[in-house]
Design goal:
The chain has 263 residues and is an alpha/beta fold. 43% of the residues lie in helices and 16% in strands. The protein contains ten helices and ten strands. A seven-stranded mixed beta sheet has the order 1-2-3-4-5-7-10, with helices on both faces. α1 links the parallel β3 and β4. α1 crosses α3 and α9 packs antiparallel against α10. The protein starts with 7 loop residues before the first strand and ends in a 5-residue tail after the last helix.
Length: 263
């Protein structure tokens, strides 16, 4: 089958769309898909570029590593050409610095939109920003060689690319604190046991396993998937009774739609 023409291919990010399925690929394996502000902008653009037909988005990284995290050149005085170094960012005023970080985060926020389901296929290193990008997705299928680590604290920084909320949600506060504050590696078996991974497979079988997961996601009626995802996303912030009410309202909408009585 002929390969799809990319809808986006820039700054280490490639987006391809095949009807209801989109794939976002990190395309700099020579640097283990290290991340930079340009890559984050490209990720955000990929999210904005998704056609309305897309229901499932797969995120993957070329090469042996999903993403080894922040490009270390950002730590140098000269930084990355055309991009602010960490020192440059530190010199900005509070409002300007906050706006810059908020812009960086945009590449990580759209993966949990209620109209799509996002699946990260993770192999090898998923460190720092790479770990946070995997956490941005709804589901994670990982290879048996995966190495998750949140190294920001060890570098004198904090995880600021939206990863702390899903990490605490998945593994609980105590485990999240231990992972972040020690910077240690979490390997495949532990990732599955504590809820970071939905499945662990041999690295050679990663693409096959992701296809096996996406098939039923695409087969289910779209509106039911959207409503269910929204229910689950809001559950933690609702009381039990409020969640029951949300379930009733969502089911009423589905029943009316199925009966042809929707608005």
């Amino acid at each position: 089958m002929a390969s799809l023409a990319p809808a986006l291919d820039k700054d280490g990010v490639r987006l391809t769309v095949d009807d209801t399925l989109a794939t976002v690929t990190l395309t700099n394996p020579a640097k283990r898909n290290a991340q930079s502000p340009a890559l984050w902008r490209a990720l955000a653009e990929a999210g904005r570029s998704l056609p309305g037909s897309v229901r499932v988005v797969v995120l993957r990284g070329e090469g042996k590593s999903f993403s080894a995290g922040l490009d270390r050149q950002m730590f140098t005085p000269e930084g990355i050409e055309g991009e602010p170094s960490l020192v440059d960012l530190a010199r900005r005023g509070d409002a300007e610095l906050d706006a810059a970080i908020a812009e960086f985060q945009e590449g990580f926020t759209w993966w949990r939109r209620s109209d799509i389901v996002s699946v990260a296929a993770v192999q090898g290193h998923a460190i720092g920003a790479g770990f946070q990008l995997a956490l941005a997705c709804d589901l994670r299928v990982v290879a048996d060689d995966v190495q998750f680590a949140m190294r920001e604290t060890s570098l004198g920084l904090v995880p600021d690319l939206t990863g702390t909320h899903p990490l605490v949600t998945l593994v609980g506060y105590g485990r999240a604190a231990e992972i972040c504050l020690t910077g240690r590696y979490v390997h495949a078996e532990e990732a599955l046991r504590i809820g970071l991974a939905n499945a662990v497979v041999p690295a050679a079988d990663l693409d096959t396993a992701v296809k096996a997961l996406t098939a039923p996601l695409l087969a289910a009626p779209r509106d039911a998937v959207v409503e269910t995802k929204a229910l689950l996303q809001g559950a933690a912030g609702r009381t039990y009774d409020d969640q029951r009410a949300a379930e009733r309202a969502a089911q009423a909408r589905r029943l009316r739609d199925l009966a042809g009585l929707g608005e």
